[in-house]
Records
---
Amino acid sequence: MSYESNLDRAIERLPDLGGSDERLQVPDANAQKDGAFTRLTNLSEIADALDRDPEHLHSAIQRDLGTAGQYDDGRARYNGSFSGDDFDATVESYMAEYVTCSECGLPDTRLVMENRTQMLRCEACGAFRPVAKRRSTSQRTDRPDVEEGETYEVKITGTGRKGDGVAEKGKYTIFVPGAQEGDVVDIYIKNISGTLAFARLA
């Protein structure tokens, strides 16, 4: 068999790296207020779309919102008042940490344990990396990195599922509608939920 024929066969067997995570259809969070609690009624559907264990996603949502909660039979309940946008933002953050490949940007990944370290293996491009560890919420300073009602200059380093610009400041992930990746902008912090902040262009 000729070199060209072998090359053609090898190329045919390569995974298709074209496209993006837009083909990952993640349902919007369905939040329902219940007194002092908020229910996320479709957590299991979201976890299924991400191909992740719902209890793992539930734990990450608790961490990001800075609250406690319970998960049972596909539904979750969290202490406090949260909106669907709050939950959507936690899902965005979860995807960046536990789903999307940092090399090819595709969601074709799975979580594996290697030497007691949680790793993310990409089935599309073969990348294999440790899950990025976030700074513990116990590592606090006298003044928080981000405060409601304050203005900051940030660099937009990513784009959320709904097209919002995403920036990082300290332990906070900040969502900025109208901002584009690569922009350096002044933002006004409207509200904060756990380690998530929601801002507008100042």
Note: Residues 14-21, 135-141 have pLDDT under 50 and may be disordered.
---
Amino acid sequence: MVPIHFLSVEHLKLQKKYGKNKGTKIGDILGLISGWGFFMFWFGVWLSPQPKFFIPLLQNFILIIPILNLSMSLFHMFISIPFIIIGAWFGIGSVKVTTLKVAETHRAEKVVSSGLYSRIRHPQYFGGIISHIGITILLSSYFSLITTPVIILLNLLISWKEEKELIKEFGKDYEDYKKKVPMFFPKLKK
């Protein structure tokens, strides 16, 4: 999905090659494919048959959920819920600021610097990583746990590529925004 995502954010290149309307549509379609592809990848990593890991504290308290034959440690559940809530808050909050269309197609009309975007440049990716960690702990998914560094690296690469393209599209406006707002660790104070 990474090459498709990289191509989907090359808005100016696609418009130059295929014309403004067709290039925009191609970019939008590639953005949808890569976004949903990553989402399905995450589900596969979380739910595929794999060994379980347990944090060795209260591991005898296991909750069996008959749906999908899942077993969850109650301790893992208590640890994971804050991660999932915080991750969802970042993801949903950022979509509320930019709109679902921008989130799905990776095509903004302007530099957005309000709401969560005034504190972090990539709140959706940050929220996705935090949620991933929470769901990994909740489901005790060993392969998901060991792929977490790869997922973080992929999100950093994607963010880097998006920022290169945003500088091409918005120039000094985006450069100024980058100087004020951190990429991946939210600013807690204004």
Note: Residues 4 and 33 are 8 Å apart (CA to CA).
---
Amino acid sequence: MTDEGPDTVETLAARDADREAALADLFQRHHLDLVRLATLLGAESDAEDVVGDAFCELHRGWKRLRSPDAALPYLRAVIVNLVRMRVRHLQVVRKHVEWVREDDVASAESQALVRDDQRALVAALRGLAARQREALVLRYWLGLKEAEIAEAMGISAGAVKAHTARGMAKLGKVLEAQGDG
């Protein structure tokens, strides 16, 4: 047995304990906000599952983080990607299923997260292109900076500006039309 043996085991155990404590703290402080993010991005009734999957990805990839401060941006990026994959999957399924319901009934859980006065905005957000919706939610709901949004979406800061500008223009037109109707 080498001198490193017991120290290595103790060191690994301490790192595991630190990781678990950091993950638990992150979950406690940000879970609800991340569920709201997933809901606003289009996960609807799957929002809890998307966030749970994102935490699993974080747990698996913890050692690859630059620092513990990178965990929340990493979770946001994973959630954006998981919601994108879910939306793509649903589009494919809907193309192959003829009896898809026209009305999109959200779960009671996601409805409870969105107050009555926000429903028109959420409905208008759902009408935007996915990238525009993602950029607007990350910018105005989470208050992220362009660089953080670019990292979460996996695009350039210039593309973030373009998606945000186009999204705001379309959102303004939709909300104005709703107000006139």
Note: DSSP finds eight helices and no strands in the chain.
---
Amino acid sequence: MQTVSHAKLVTRLLAIVFGMFAFGFALVPLYDVFCDLTGINGRSVQRVDTQIQTLVDESRQVKIEFVTLDKTGMQTDFKPKVAYVEVHPGEMKEVAFTVNNLKGSAQLVQAIPSVSPGQASLYLNKTECFCFNQQSIAAQATTEFKLKFFIDKDLPEEIKVLTLAYTLYPLEQPVTTAQVL
């Protein structure tokens, strides 16, 4: 009688462990969906079709500040060519960033964006961004990264300054979508 009771207990405990393990794997995609929907954490990986025509709201301007962080721990110099730009909502803008690889070998990097205030990430539309793909930087070379974007005209009036930060991370080898999932 006690053996059957222990078997049921072990089965239930294993089911709980399996359920917790599955929930742990589901948290990352659930978190990504939650952040995309709410704009929390300043995540802005939104791609926009380049054919979209928007009306420019020339009655106001928004200041976009650019900040870069280098987490490669290597000999690189990563910075925007301009500290900020002023744009009219709906106006397409292009800015450039430079990465100077002082190291004697090529580097593979990925830039991760963040927008502050977080709510503003819902209105930042990137049509072209170096953050969409992993980048290879040749040894002893300077590479220019491009960003094309516009701010949606529905950006709340109280948001007058937006900070777009890019953190550059090293990659040991190319990462594919299959590896992430």
Note: The longest helix spans residues 2-38.
